[in-house]
Structures are given as C-alpha cells and as structure tokens.
C-alpha cells in the first residue's frame, strides 16, 4: 500500500489532468481493495477519527490550494489503517478548520469511502464517485471546466436526493471556508448538501426532511417559516382590502394597504365632521330622534328591538333628557320664524312629537302660535301620534 | 324607563352572545398572534352586534362630551369616536392601547419636543451630501409609512405590523359603517323627512 501511495505521490506533484485521470482510476481500484481492510479493521478507523481534525485540515488545505493533485491524498487514506500515510498527509498543511469528515462505517462499502471523500472535496470527481459510477466520473473529469461547474453538477446530483438530513449549523458553516476559489454561493449549497448526505455519527443532530431542492440549513428553515407566516398574513390582508386580488408582490400590496387605511381614516374624519355639524341642530341630535318615533316606538317595541343601529339610537334617545331636547329645539327654532315653511314644519314636527309628554304640550302650543303653516303642523301632529 | 330600553346594550348577563364573547376573550389573550385567533378577532369586527355596541357607546360618549364642552369641534368628535373604537377592541391589540394612552399629556409633549429637537439639529448640521441614498430602502419606507398610519405601531416587526394592520382595517371599516348609519339617521331625522313612524321603524334607515 505504501508503494502504491508513493506512486501516487509521484504523480501528484505533476498536477496534470491526465495524471489525475490515471490517479483516479488507480485510486478507485485501491479503494475497492481497501474495502476488505476497512471491514476487518475497525480500530484503525476509529483511530483515524482522532486524527480527523488534522485530516480535515488537510483536506481543507488541499481544496484551498486548488491543486487537484493533493486532493487525492486524503482519499487514499480513507478507510485505511496506515498511520504513516496519515502522518505524511498531515505534512501537507492544514490551513482550514473543521471540514466535515465523517467516519467510515465499519461496513465500509466503497460507496461510503467515496461519499466520504465527496463530502470533503469539492471537485466534481468526488461527487461523481459518490454516485458510484466510474465511467461517469471519468466522463466528468474530462470536462474540467472549472470548479464552479463541477460544483453545480454536484448540486444537481445532490439535489436529486429527495431526502436530506439537516446538520448542526456550526458544521455547515465550516464548509464554505473550504471553497475559496469557487463562488461562495454556488459552492455553499453543494458542500452543505454533500456533508448532509454523508453519514451522521454525532448525537446532536436534528433530522428534518427538507423539501426537494431546498436548503436544509437551520437558518434557511427559519427564514422559510418566517416567510410563510408573512405570506399568510398578507393573504389575510388581501381579503380585507378590496381590489387587491390582482396585485402580486409585497410592495404593491403595501401601497394598496396604505391607500386603503388612509381613505378609511379620511372617511372617519369626514363623518366626524358631519356628526359635529349635526350636533348643534339638536341637543345631541340623538335626543330628538326618539321623539319622532316615540309613540310608534313604544307600540312596536319588539320591532324596534330587532332593527339595527336605528333602533339602537331610538332606545337611547328615550331618556329623561327629552325635556332638554325640547327646550333646545325651541331655542334652535325660535330664532328662525322666517325660514321656509318646510323648515319650520320640520322643526315643528319634532316638537309636536315631543308633545307626547305632557310637559311638552304647553311648549307646543306656544310654538304653534307662530307656526305659519298650521296645516303642516296638523299633519305633523297626525303623523307624530300615529 | 330603563325597562323600556331594549336589550341592545352590552349587558353581559343577559345575552348569550356576550357570554360567548367572554369565553372567547380568555382564549384569545394568551396567543394573540395565532392565526385562528387573529381571524376570529377580525371577524368579530364584521358582526352586526359589534356595530350596535359601538354605536351605543359612541352616542353615549358623544352626549357626555357634548354636555361637558358644548363645542362642536370635528376633532373632538373624531377623537371620541377613535377612543370608543379602541375601547371596543378590549385592549387586545396594540393600536387600541396606543389610542387610549395617546391622550395623556406626557405622550403628546414628548412628541412635540422630539420634533423640535430634530429640526433644530438638522439645520445646524451640514446638509446631507448623499440625498439619493435616502430613498433606497423602498420597502422599509413603506413599512414606516404604514407604521405611522396605524397608531402605536411605528417600531414593529413586519409580521406584527401586518397583524395589527389587518385588525385596524377591520375596526376602521366597522367604525365607518356605524358612523355612517348614525349620521344618516340623524341627518334624516333632523332634515325632517316625513315618514310615518311605523314605516320608519319598519325600515332600517340606511339599509
């Protein structure tokens, strides 16, 4: 094995793609051979774990350096029980912190090794190895368009997995550091997703099945929940505000909402002005209202009870302030003897109705003395006392 | 006389609806931001009964204020109407609490002082060079505008603001409906429309 390693090493320092291909093939074969070792020897694997940080650093360093050559080294050591190799690798220079390296399970299928490597390495090769097709790997290796493209493909490959497991945030954050060359956005997802695909052996994980094609980071999950909450509330608002069905987008909706609230407030303002204008005509007009319908109101109590706001007002008006109302009415109408007959009649109408109470009758008589429209008054009387 | 007043006033003992409301109250308070409870609250504003209660209270309040200060200021009426609306909300929402506490002199004075200070400082400092950048956060601008419209919601998160806005809109709609009914009725009566009282009673004035 050591010899094989040395041969690989000799190859690594050339850094040419063709060599890489050769190395890949050699590595694959080697790894398959290593399966037996992995199955048999659990302990070394565990020991490897202890040196994992170094290992991870190595891998990270390799990635950071951007030399495909060096990347191969860690792959070689996966599942191996050769500590010498590990030591050699450690020399390579751990520049990066924790990158994810999960242990190869004792079952030690080649797939795991492959997946392991893919979790650490950001090259398409490793990702494809994870898929398990050598031919595929080779094909993709040939098209060395760049890490970004590889990463994208890897993302696609990973996204094909419908089920992903969520990792602790800290671990995921370690991933992006590894990729210095690739654009962070592109690399981040595949790195995270890769790490998630690999085996979990730490107990603190919360496993959540994410939806297809969506990141499963705790941050993004929380973001998604928040966004859904907001969209629910926006829909609720859409139902309230008329004419918002066609508008999509929060900004447009906000505009509509603002306009609607402003219009409602203006309406309230206008209505309050109107109410204030109505007030002087009657001692709080309300008191007059019942006057008109008082007789009928009393007669039709159940009907009044059923009618809405109107009846509401009438019941309120029925209070001992009637006398006040009458006096005010008189005050209001007295200075207007020259107004149109209609106006006076209208004013008088309420008074005759108020005359329902005995105390008002005298006032009514006084009023009728200067009423210019006796007929109107009579009519009012008739109507009032129906 | 009191016996003649129909049972439209919010008498907690008698009406079953009100008892239901009481039960609902205890359920609502703990999770005021829950979806269902928010919907329940909003639907409450759209009921006929709520409008009746509001009209009753409004008329009472207006009468009282009329007695105290016989000025027919529109602002006064508006303030009364808003406060009665806030009372009808039973303090479950932020805007209602803000309306009720806005009358306190401390709050009003604070705002005046703040405005004065800000303006003074602006003039003393150099004029801002990069005025273009002010309008950049368009979305946030709109949020601020909405926050200023809804009382007491200036510094609120987006989702909370939306919740408050929906409740506020429902309440405002009810307020407009109730005040329209009142004004129409009063205008109708004071305008002297001669309708037979039976008809008057039979027909709901505006509906």
UniProtKB/TrEMBL annotation, chain A:
Gene Ontology molecular-function annotations: DNA binding; DNA-binding transcription factor activity; protein dimerization activity
PANTHER family hit by this protein: STEROL REGULATORY ELEMENT-BINDING PROTEIN, TRANSCRIPTION FACTOR BEE 2-LIKE ISOFORM X1
Protein's recorded name: Transcription factor HBI1-like
Keyword Transferase: no
Primary subcellular site in the record, as a coarse category: nucleus
Domain BHLH positions: 214-264
Source organism per UniProt: Durio zibethinus (Durian)
Keyword Ribonucleoprotein assigned: no
From TrEMBL, chain B:
Protein name according to UniProt: Transcription factor bHLH149-like
Organismal lineage: Eukaryota, Viridiplantae, Streptophyta, Embryophyta, Tracheophyta
Highest rank taxon of the organism: Eukaryota
InterPro entries cross-referenced by the UniProt entry: bHLH_AtIBH1-like, bHLH_dom, HLH_DNA-bd_sf, IBH1-like, IBH1_N
Subcellular location: Nucleus
Region (Disordered): 1-48
One GO MF term attached to the UniProt entry: transcription cis-regulatory region binding
All residue ranges annotated as the BHLH domain in the record: 123-172
Keywords recorded for this protein, A-Z: Nucleus, Transcription, Transcription regulation
GO CC annotation terms, alphabetical: nucleus
GO terms of biological process kind: regulation of DNA-templated transcription
Classification via Pfam families: IBH1_N
